[in-house]
Amino acid sequence: MLNRRSLLRGSAAAGAAGTALLAGLNGARAQAGGAPIPVGAALPMSGIAAADGIEFQNGLTMAVDEINAAGGVLGRPLELHVEDTADMGADLVTQAMQRLIDRYETPVIMNGYNSGTNMVEMDVAADNDVIFCHYNTMISHNNKFKEDPERYYGCFQGDPPEYYYGPGLLTYLNTLIESGQWTPANRKIALIPSANEYSITIANAVRDQAAEFGWEVSLYETVQFPNNQWGPTLAKLRQDPPAVIAVTHFLPQDLAQFMVQFAPQPMNSLIYMQYGPSLPAFKEIGGEAVKGVLYSTVVGCLPDEFSEAFRSSYRARFGENSSYLTGSQTYDGLWKWALAAAIAGGPGAPFDREQAMKVAASMNRLIYRGVNGICRFDPDGQSAFCYPTQIADASLGMPHQFLQHQDVAADPVMVAPGSYAKAAFMMPPWMS
Questions:
Q1: Of 283, 266, 292, whose CA–CA distance to 405 is shortest?
Q2: Ramachandran area for residue 17 (φ above 0: left; ψ -120 to 50: alpha; else beta)
Q3: pLDDT tens across 151-176, in order?
Q4: Mapping DSSP to helix (H, G, I), strand (E, B) and coil, where does residue 53 land?
Q5: Residues 164/393/420/364 CA torsion (nearest 10 deg)
Q6: What is the pTM of this model?
Q7: Domains in the chain, start-ordered, CATH in brackets?
């Protein structure tokens, strides 16, 4: 029988341990022959973010198969339904989510990211009393939740908000200097966001705190979204070369073009980018020009022993060029929800507020160790705690990962935070 002590031991587990925990819950309370549970996902399967949309679907597919192999949720198998959000935006995303609820009666919607929504999808979840978890990585989620926690009780952001990229980057740069790994030519940092909320929030977080960390913002240049013509921006950068160029735009194909256009006339500047370099398209387009690029992500599959089985299984199933760094997000999210729903006594159904609130409470209590690290929801916003910027205990927060492309024939390597790092920082070849 599953007792409280064994449940608490298992509540920080994923992979085989998560399977064992779910099987234990199913053995104790399974509903034999239960009807399938429809799981919804509104993902950009076409359009500018289709590469990520495909990986988000892959992660969900793996999680569904593993959860079903463990007996589903209290004996009921999961059944995945995906609606395409194309080029995203508020109307497309909310319509896709409502279709999932109306057509399939999904008690949960597990999204990756959808840009340009201003978090209106939280209203769809609230109006229908369904659990909604996403990886938009936006502080606007936290702000909206705080406006009315009772209304948005079932809305969760499975990773930390993008705000933490700002202080996290500044802290990391100063750590490189203080440890003697890098001596900057000056204390200037140039910020290059694209015209979307996510990129601008990150750039503003750096800008607003730069002086506290001893940095001067020498250029703040907003570019179009999407953007692959970097000539005018590079011309401005070359007029006053900064020690750091921080590009907070996130599409991998556009960031690769930045490096291709930077390479013929490089500057003595570290180049930091945001999220996009984790995707295969960045290396495929950029080639040798991307070697030395630093980037970070507040969520992504860790290169540790714990996630090794997931990484190898993911690529074996979806191909060597697939990105488990992205698929891992929805994979972990669905696993955490499945465990929470089983603990709560079942997933409920749309408009079953009482049961949805039980599942939400279970998600808040559950400290889940997934392949992306620890997911523990901050009650002041219902997004994952960020380690080390927001919380100093690595066992209670999701790591803000800094990675570097050191060999274009291999995966990027993690260089920070120290408790997770697999390699030391390497000076970029254009600065050698």
A1: 292
A2: alpha
A3: 999 999 999 999 999 999 999 999 99
A4: helix
A5: -70
A6: 0.89
A7: 4-161+303-387 (3.40.50.2300), 163-297+400-431 (3.40.50.2300)
